[in-house]
Write a structure and sequence with these properties.
With 471 residues, this protein is α+β, with helices and mostly antiparallel strands. 21% of the residues lie in helices and 38% in strands. The longest helix is centred in the N-terminal third of the chain and has 18 residues. This is TldD/PmbA family protein.
Length: 471
Amino acid sequence: MKAVMSDFLVSSKPLVRKLIDRLSKTYSYVSVLGTDTKGKSYVVSKTAIEVKDIIFAERGFVVRIHNGVNYSEYSFNEISEEGLDQIVEEINNKIGKVARIIPANSYEVIEEEAIKQSLFGDIEINPEEISSMEIIHNLTEVKDLALQRSELIANVHVVYNSYHISKIYMSGKKDLEQSYFLGEAFISCVARKAEKTKRYFKSLSGNKGYEIVSKLKDMALEIVDQSIALLDAKPAKPGVYDVICAPDITGLIAHEAFGHGVEMDMFVKNRAKGAEYVGKPVASNISTMHDGAVAADHMASYLFDDEGTLGKDTIVIKDGILQTGISDLLSALKLGTVPTGNGRRQSFERKAYARMTNTFFEGGKDKLEDMIASIKQGYLLEGTFSGMEDPKNWGIQCIALLGKEIIDGKLTGKLISPVVMTGYVPDLLKSITMVSETVELGGAGFCGKGYKEYVKVSDGGPYIKAKVRLG
């Protein structure tokens, strides 16, 4: 089943073209991004049921013009024949004045190729055709199944979020449109025994419709059992260990280490150490990392970014050598590089930044059982909790939900939790000695630029063996 383009955007395109034509008489570059994103969030727990619009719901436009010095933007919610004069007047009065009185860096005029393309994503079940009552009923069944597993379960949250994203991008030479669905579902389980409380969760996500919910029952009992097992977990003894990172932890490392670290707007501001290492080794020679909207089919896949640049598959690291960063259009203009299709906005009212999309390590040739057998004393880390990185100094911190003890090449059944992994990015990546064949991606969550500007991303990779510091 194909996603259907927003009627609002389709009906607005003739007026957007008129607006561009009018503004182009004054300004050397004019583009318009139109967005219409809708969807619902469903949460079922032991004590509550919640249904609401997704936080990314939006409908509106943003105009970008070259003001004679650099670029200015103007956003608005509605467009009509009678309202065009007011939009043009506002742009001329406000944006022109700002460009004249505020000193700023200059930017060249964007040179575009003529492109007309469309993308309509595929799904199995359209969530817009499923009633809220049916969705709540299905999520409640999963919640009840989990709660009945053990008296140690204090609460269970079952969540399903659906997104229907439609966008147009128009300029003097471009006419682009895309419409697609994203789906994410997860179960979070809280176990309690005496004074000890532990939480474990797992998610599903992708360019999917309501079909994603059908898989929740299959993983519900696994999540319950793992949360109960964590009640007996011990704290990690600080030290340096050989570890195996599950695909979600590998993705967390990719995201924090050379995701944020190679966003090229940070190159422009001299806030990223990665700019000094392009063409140099930063990881072991069995490490290759990608980012890009077409690098994988997942939560951050699209035809074009929010600046009208077609999505790409960017090889960030190849055989351990840092190849390039990921860029928005204006950073690429300033640096004299080719934009990689990573200019993304939280909404049409927000600035476009260089942002990650689908970020992951390539698979290798090793078997997981051989990787486990190679460890004398260490851990298998899994369950992403959080992470952060300092692009200026390449420090990294990743928190995993648990570590499974490995002694003499075998899993002992003992757990540590929580697990805090810290270190210097090149040291961590250069310590990678084994990489499994299978690659998995996940993306049920958000990525912020610092503490704000949230967008959907995915990350992942294979199992990797590395040497890390745990605390």
